[in-house]
Amino acid sequence: MVTTSPTNGAGFDASVLAELREITTRYPQARSALLPMLHLVQSVEGRVTSRGIEACADILGISAAEVSGVATFYTMYKRRPVGEYHVGVCTNTLCAVMGGDEIFERLKDHLDVGNDETTDDGRITLEHLECNAACDYAPVMMVNWEFMDNQTPESATRLVDDLREGKEVRSTRGPRICTWREAERVLAGFPDDRADEGPAAGPASLLGLQIARENGWTAPRQRP
Ligand code: FES
């Protein structure tokens, strides 16, 4: 049930409430919109706040506890303020052995923060990530969910220094790095103009396909 009570939103601007409601119209069942709605809350608040939870609950006609249950289950939803750039280092098995652990330790020392902590200037939040399904480019980092492939401790420290100095930084796959809040807005389903910057897949990901084509291999046909 979608409600439009004037008490909705616990103090959000009317434009934010309108966008939260707009998201619900994309789905046959309004409550399916909760995940992108929480991303929109993060784009406005810098994290999932209590008033964001209440606004989502009011609009969807569900309880704040149900919204909280979702917001605390998925690691992409943050209850503490995130810096301008969320820097993730994959420390899952392949990336770890290829140098991810070393990168993460180097960045912790360099930035003087621990896991899930933000630098004093509010620019960088550091977090170790699980597998990003980009193992063919290990060790992999992500900045605001854009890939930074084949990293080293040296390239990683250069990267965070450039971000802190306000230089333009691009993903190793092409797109410009935007702020975390801007990225959260995209995840809420309000695209920016960066989607076509860079290729859809790089050579390492396409190598298996190339080998199969060179050898004339095809996938087995499915039985009817
Ligand atoms: S283990 Fe790091 S991307 Fe898969």
Automatic annotation (TrEMBL):
GO terms for molecular function: 2 iron, 2 sulfur cluster binding; metal ion binding; NADH dehydrogenase activity. Its cofactor is [2Fe-2S] cluster. Pfam families: 2Fe-2S_thioredx. The keyword Transcription regulation does not apply. InterPro entries: NuoE-like (IPR002023), NuoE_dom (IPR042128). Its EC number is 1.6.5.11. Keywords: 2Fe-2S, Iron, Iron-sulfur, Metal-binding, Oxidoreductase. The keyword Iron-sulfur applies. Belongs to the complex I 24 kDa subunit family. This is NADH-quinone oxidoreductase subunit NuoE. It comes from Nocardioides panacis. The lineage of its organism: Bacteria, Bacillati, Actinomycetota, Actinomycetes, Propionibacteriales. The gene is nuoE.
